[in-house]
Design goal:
The chain is mainly beta and 137 residues long. It has helices spanning 7-13, 26-36; strands spanning 46-48, 59-61, 70-78, 81-88, 93-97, 102-103, 106-111, 115-119, 126-130. Mean pLDDT is 76; it is low at 55-63.
């Protein structure tokens, strides 16, 4: 077994710098902002403010895209659980949703064979999305 190093030996080998921290420059502030930015945020698309066209000042988030449009494609029954197959046509994404889940700011209230009932949490307005294609036997 190797002998343990003492704390004094470590402090001698790796001294703590005693100089004062340097003032932040615009470049280091920009680097710190990049490090703090969340690359997985859904709001990562940013636009430069109209008040600061140079882009050197604060950035603001881009305005939201058009109102999402949904298409109800069908329903999956997995035992006692059911899921709605919803397509957000504005983004071209498909979701498999259960009651209580949210998609693009809307909450799923009910799933039926012919429609899905969504709720807008901001306005509390209910939106019924009908089945887009009925399959003939």
């Amino acid at each position: 077994m190797l002998p343990r190093e003492t704390w004094e030996r470590v402090k001698e080998a790796y001294p703590i710098p005693s100089e004062a921290p340097q003032a932040l420059t615009p470049e280091s502030q920009a680097a710190a902002a990049l490090i703090d930015a969340n690359p997985f945020s859904p709001q990562r698309d940013r636009a430069v403010s109209a008040a600061d066209p140079s882009g050197q000042g604060a950035l603001r988030f881009a305005p939201a895209a058009a109102e999402p449009q949904f298409a109800y494609k069908g329903r999956l029954q997995l035992g006692a659980r059911q899921r709605a197959v919803m397509e957000e046509t504005t983004a071209g994404k498909t979701y498999f949703l259960e009651v209580g889940q949210a998609v693009a700011g809307f909450k799923v209230l009910d799933i039926d064979e012919k429609r899905v009932l969504l709720s807008d949490p901001q306005t509390h307005e209910e939106v019924a999305v009908p089945l887009t294609s009925a399959r003939s036997p």
